[in-house]
Automatic annotation (TrEMBL):
The gene is Tnni2. SUPFAM superfamilies: Troponin coil-coiled subunits. It comes from Daphoenositta chrysoptera. This is Troponin I, fast skeletal muscle. The lineage of its organism: Eukaryota, Metazoa, Chordata, Craniata, Vertebrata. One of its GO terms (molecular function) is actin binding. Troponin I is the inhibitory subunit of troponin, the thin filament regulatory complex which confers calcium-sensitivity to striated muscle actomyosin ATPase activity.
Amino acid sequence: QKKRRAATARRQHLKSAMLQLAVTEIEKETAAKEVEKQNYLAEHCPPLSLPGSMQELQELCKKLHAKIESVDEERYDTEVKLQKTTKELEDLSQKLFDLRGKFKRPPLRRVRMSADAMLRALLGSKHKVCMDLRANLKQVKKEDTEKEKDLRDVGDWRKNIEEKSGMEGRKKMFEAGE
């Protein structure tokens, strides 16, 4: 019991120590990211100084629009490059998969189709012949066998049981056996 308590207490202590370390590491990471963000913004986005005259404002707007267009072009180029590389990766992974030779077969489902539906699927709209496979079958009458006649003659099973019950029924069975 003492060993178990000591082990669980130690485990709890280690867990809390790890959580405290993780919290401090996360705080350090967020602070580093914030500093990096501030440095990037200071480098790439100089502080905005608004000019007093209307003409200078228009020139500033034109410069901003030009920067926006250049950034959009860069974004578009990087997206296209990313799409190309993902496509190449997919192609290479498919080639690798083909070279291994292990093909994963898709699970096949059973589909109930009539002969008409099958021909329609294979031939398309050309199929106009109706195939009723049961139309040409012969009608066969069921012949009465002797067992079925005997069963019909016996009739209700309760009557048969009542006849055989008691001493008279046993006497009949005994005489029938001789």
